[in-house]
Write a structure and sequence with these properties.
Length: 212
């Protein structure tokens, strides 16, 4: 689709690697077009980190990954909700989002799909809809969590964008054991979405609301 430019963009990520997995290539492309990109992570998943890593390793890794994509340190917002408990903190999470809305006034939101079966992702999607009623909203895909996904928008990516996504994800050493964390998977999904629109690489999104 036509590239967004000169906008304030906010990425709602439940966990520290979700922004890069869901829309890392698009983030890299948006930053080339004079957009201000802000990103969040509502949990550093300390309870899920493998025992050979420090419990807070994902905080370091998300800062490095965001820097690789081009997001400035002061444009990354980190929260400390315990993984898999977001549904117990819905109101607090909504209030954090409303604070971001008032502080940043974002025009474009990227967030998980409302069809994402992970309980934390689903909560962020639901509260994101409530908090950002007047913003354009794109939902990014997580194929391992999405039972269904409506590919209603595509952002074409060049090699440099997919490479930045891969390099950002490579910062997550603690997550390298996950099957979807491999370069092969990231490139393959990018190629599938690219083939669907006749280009080399793309990322697909479900549009909830588009305001031009």
């Amino acid at each position: 689709m036509t590239l967004i430019s000169n906008k304030r963009v906010l990425i709602l990520a439940p966990h520290t690697d979700d922004a890069e997995f869901g829309c890392g290539g698009t983030i890299a492309k948006l930053l080339e077009s004079n957009n201000e990109v802000f990103s969040t992570a509502f949990s550093a998943c300390q309870q899920s980190v493998l025992k050979e890593f420090p419990a807070d390793i994902l905080i370091t890794e998300v800062k490095n990954a965001s820097h690789t994509l081009g997001i400035k340190n002061n444009q990354l917002f980190l929260y400390d909700y315990e993984v898999r408990t977001f549904n117990y903190h819905r109101q607090e999470i909504l209030e954090e989002m409303i604070k971001l809305r008032k502080e940043l006034n974002p025009e474009v939101i990227f967030m998980p799909s409302a069809n994402d079966i992970h309980q934390d992702h689903f909560t962020i999607a639901q509260e994101g809809l409530r908090a950002f009623k007047t913003s354009t909203i794109f939902c990014y895909e997580m194929p391992w969590n999405n039972l269904t996904f409506n590919t209603s928008a595509f952002f074409e990516l060049d090699e440099k964008h997919i490479s930045k996504k891969i390099n950002a994800l490579a910062e997550y050493k603690s997550q390298a054991h996950r099957p979807y964390a491999s370069e092969e998977f990231v490139r393959s999904l990018g190629r599938v979405r690219g083939v669907q629109i006749g280009v080399q690489y793309a990322e697909a999104f479900d549009i909830i609301r588009y305001i031009s």
